[in-house]
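seq:
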Amino acid sequence: MRLFFGRKSEPAPRLAFPPERLRELMLLTLATPAGRVIPGQASLLDEVARTRSPADLLPRFPIVTRDAYLAQRERYLNPDSADTGFRHFDQPRHSPYRTAILMEGFIETPKVLAFPDGWNNDLHKFKAQCLVGPVAMLRRMSVMVLNGGARFPSLRRPVLAYTGLPFGQTGLLTPADRDQFWAAFRVGLEEHFLGYRHERLASECSAQAGLHIHSAEAIFEVPDPETSELVITSLANTVFPVVRLATGFTGTLTKEPCACGVEGLRLLNLQPLIAKPRAPRVRMALAANQPG
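struct:
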């Protein structure tokens, strides 16, 4: 049984959908080598620039598979981007605390340090009050704690478990993970869904009833009800911009009110996409020239 103590997280403000950010991302996408081969690119470029509602043009953009995006990432590069690839740790409720991040890609400060290799003497001396990392690293760290090889006696804030695009299907959080992390760390847990630039696209609240989508950062779709594959447009990824990226995950989107009081879209039942096996091809023998 997992018990959670401490002050309940306050609901985050509802974020309005920013049409200008979507317009900017669409224009950046259409200017990349990958975007220039989209059917009707020239007319679409003009429509995006002039429309008052760029969201209406989303269906005009073909869905990009995750494998194609990763295999040809250089074709999605925005050459004018000044992004260094490192992000600030933008968690307001956790920022005053000493935070240990078990991965690279974040700007370090005196109170926010990265430990991508996991447990070592520097992490021990840091006395982290908040622990953050991908699910795979948290699994590894929790096993060390349960086996007596690591200790986090100073933790004061919920562990932040990162899932999402950079970590793939094996990086999803399971009920068994939640039980194991509670047994090891003895603090609460929040799941945060990241994009490829480590931008936070959705996050869990204290009610643990799905992920609240940050509509100022991303657009989530489930365009094919047969597969339920989640398609995401990250408004924050202007380095390798892509409109309508198929994620390899399935999920359900709902606008039903959350128990925490936050309004807006939530993502439920996040699962790996299981490809349906193809039907075997049957070679039909020609009737001609067959013995009668």
